[in-house]
UniProtKB/TrEMBL annotation:
Residues 9-138, 152-286 form the EamA domain. It is a multi-pass membrane protein. The keyword Membrane applies. The keyword Membrane applies. Keywords: Membrane, Transmembrane, Transmembrane helix. Coiled coil: none annotated. Belongs to the EamA transporter family. It is found in: Membrane. The chain crosses the membrane at residues 12-35, 41-58, 70-92, 98-117, 124-143, 149-168, 180-201, 213-232, 244-263, 269-289. This is Putative cystine transporter YijE.
Length: 295
């Protein structure tokens, strides 16, 4: 295979991954009327982890659990916290707004890596965070009154949780180097199981198992969670990290465009400007040199 065809295949896989993950935001929004947010999180990740465990066994990867305390913390943040905030935000918030707030994750990674890993941010990181901060102000439009700011706050909470989980995952790989698929399956299982008692104890609407919910859950569990993750592994293998990292720009953009086309969620000019600034901040951060470790 020539280098050009190899690169084209990698970019095609990256575009497929972006489309699959952006589509999951539409699916999650469509099923909020049929299942409570905590039931959804528990079901998505317990079922998704079982699919991954089946793949681990089929590919004869090691099945042993990585260090359980760190795996549990990652499951609590990267899986349960992230998805719990997202699905609760989608009850009243639009796909574009919530997905963009969730994808503020790279900025939270910078801050928590500074605190936990002693990775000092550079001036370029500061520029990216500044652009995103201005974009967030434009997105919220405080000059028009805050209105229903709950989806924005919950969306930011999801990005924060994802950021903490990402930093903890980096620590896991640096210290213990687990098999990626096995580690993902275990932390996903922990995240799903943690949400089971929450789903049982917190009042929420009962699940309505019609074709809408079955279709949405099938897409989310099998395609967005399992197949999307496998697609991403292929992207990481084939595409340079600097390019693969830019997929974080593509998912909220495509999700917003799909929501505009399919759900009639038309963003305001201020929201479009804010989105552009936040995405510019993410791009600047993704292109920055790695943060140096503090002594």
């Amino acid at each position: 295979m020539s280098r050009s065809s190899f690169d084209r295949a990698g970019l095609a896989l990256m575009l497929s991954t972006i489309l699959v993950w952006a589509g999951s935001w539409i699916a999650m929004k469509l099923i909020v009327s049929y299942i409570g947010p905590f039931d959804f999180v528990a079901l998505r990740y317990v079922a998704g982890s079982l699919v991954l465990f089946a793949l681990v066994i089929a590919t004869r990867r090691p099945l042993a659990m990585p260090p359980w305390k760190l795996t549990l913390l990652i499951g609590l943040t990267q899986t349960a916290g992230f998805q719990g905030f997202v699905q609760t935000a989608l009850v009243t918030g639009g796909v574009g707004k919530v997905s963009l707030m969730a994808y503020t994750m790279p900025f939270w990674v910078i801050l928590f890596a500074w605190w936990l890993l002693r990775e000092r941010p550079t001036a370029t990181h500061g520029l990216g965070i500044g652009l995103a901060a201005v974009g967030l102000i434009c997105f919220v439009e405080p000059w028009n009154g805050l209105g229903d700011i709950r989806p924005v706050v919950l969306g930011l909470g999801s990005g924060l949780s994802w950021g903490v989980g990402t930093v903890l995952s980096k620590r896991m790989f640096e210290r213990h180097a687990p098999d990626v698929m096995t580690f993902t399956a275990w932390q996903m299982l922990f995240g799903g199981l943690v949400m089971v008692p929450v789903a049982l104890l917190v009042p929420q609407m009962p699940a309505q198992w019609g074709w809408q919910l079955w279709t949405g859950m099938t897409y989310i569990v099998l395609i967005a969670t399992a197949a999307g993750w496998l697609l991403w592994l292929q992207v990481v293998r084939r595409v340079p990290a600097s390019i693969a990292g830019l997929s974080s720009l593509g998912v909220p953009v495509v999700a917003m465009l799909l929501a505009w086309a399919l759900l009639s969620e038309r963003p305001t000019p201020a929201e479009l400007g804010g989105m552009a600034l936040i995405l510019a901040g993410i791009w600047v951060v993704s292109r920055a040199a790695p943060a140096p470790r503090a002594d």
